[in-house]
Amino acid sequence: MNEWVSFLSVNALWLIIVVPLMGAFLAGAASKLNKKWCFPIALFSVLFSFIFVMLLAQQVWAGGIVANTVEHVSQTTLTLPSGSVLPIRIFLLADGMSILMAFIGSLISVLAVIYSFQFIKSQETFYYPLFLVMISGMYGMVLTGDLFNLFVFLEISSISATGLVMTFNRKRSPDSAFKLITVSTIAAMMILVAIGILYSQYNALNMSFLAQAIQWTLLDKIALCLLFTGFAMKAGSVPMHFWVPDAYGDTPASVSAFFVVLSQASLYALFRICFSLFGLSINNVTVGWIIIILGVLSMFIGVMMALVQKDIKRLMAFHAISQTGYMLLGVGVGLAVLGTPAFVEFGSMAMQGSIFHMLNHSIYKGLLFLTAGAVFYAAGTRDLRELRGLGHYMPLTTIFFMVGAFAITGLPPFNGFASKLLIYESVYAFNPVLSAIALLVSILTLASFMKVFYAAFLGPKPKKKPKPIPHTMLFAMLVLSLLCVVFGLFPGIILDALIKPAVEALVSAVSYSGVFTFV
């Protein structure tokens, strides 16, 4: 038994990515025999990945940060027709930041698959294989230490996500899928060109090697701009956010919940590029303020657009854009003061608040999308003008929605309050105006969700009794609701155990650049 545990721990980095891919293949093949086999295959795949993430996390968190980075390098050779030998390397890396993102993805993927058991009544043949491929792509994005592999995994996740958008809501999905694949293609082309620029100069793709080699030439600056813009587009930052409401709105709630994680994987890549790849070269103040401006615009425009929505899922999609702004704001402040006494004073706190908010956002926003799915499942519509009185028949879903709404608004004792408070305090020390804008956005967020609560759950009983919610859907919402409360009641434990190691790993550009070197 100990030998097996040791084997799995050593190979956890690979297994996290490979298991969902194998599950996708098996689910697709099994669907030709019996569609009922798709769910158990998908469930076992995400559960095993979750176990491997925890085994890997134990190694990373046991000793701290980048100094205890877990590495896995696969090297083989390819003999070309000319007779020359080309080395092939696949570099995977897990530090405090990347393993936190893997933990977020594994948690939401397990609950999303459980939620899907009775929620997805058709299209299992396409749904589960595509979903598992998307999960695998997300894992690859956050665990790779190679720029080209990052591009490949981004493409894998984007193509599978587009397939999921196309599979459902046949009336609106072609337009939504077109927007998603167009943005994904443009972003991917920018990223690929940037990778080519860096490779042409330094003959390397490994990010830790490039971090040491970059000379901050004009070409390097162009590469940074392209990488920054591409990942900001995929993260759904304003003004490149137009695809988010359609993609989130025209997929099943379980997929929408994981789309949140997928967008955060792109946000992770953006932060990794700014800190770990170019952190030794860039002008921190300039890039930090660019991130701050994008954050403020995303917060404000996202919440203002949410206020006027009548479709409950589109409303929540715009709030996903708004909440991304908080993450950009805090990290931008941290980057702007990096290397100065102000970073110790409030910059580190700003980054802790933002990274903590990434974790909290995946939980409460995932919960809110699942409650929206439950509303659609029960009432058959997402239009707030056609909903009323569901609280009479759906008390548990009503409670779960309230937990998610209070959490996203930042009310105590829920998890959103803990991360937003860190952001408010630290950003106020940097610039009080920015903190006031963040507070205003939270107030508008509360108003928006009170509108949803009043329209969907209050009022007289609906004429048609809604369908009962299956236990698997309730279970997924219950787990996320409990996490909203637990993370809000014990934020200190989460900060010490998960968030501080992630922030330290992210800002340690010098340590990251020395992780692995090859010529």
List keywords for this structure.
two-stranded antiparallel sheet; mainly alpha; 519 residues; 2 strands
Strands, count: 2
Distance between the termini: 39 Å
Q: How many separate domains?
A: 1
Strands of the widest sheet, in order across it, are: 1-2
Mean pLDDT: 87
What structural category do the secondary elements indicate? mainly alpha
Report the helical percentage.
over 70%
Question: What is the percentage of strand-forming residues?
Answer: under 5%
How many helices in DSSP terms? 20
Could you say which overall geometry the principal axes of the C-alpha atoms support?
Answer: globular
Largest sheet: number of strands, sense, barrel closure: 2 strands, antiparallel
What's the alpha carbon Rg, rounded to whole Å?
22 Å
**Topology as a string of helices (H) and strands (E):** HHHEEHHHHHHHHHHHHHHHHH
Which residues form runs of ≥5 with pLDDT under 50?
Answer: 64-68
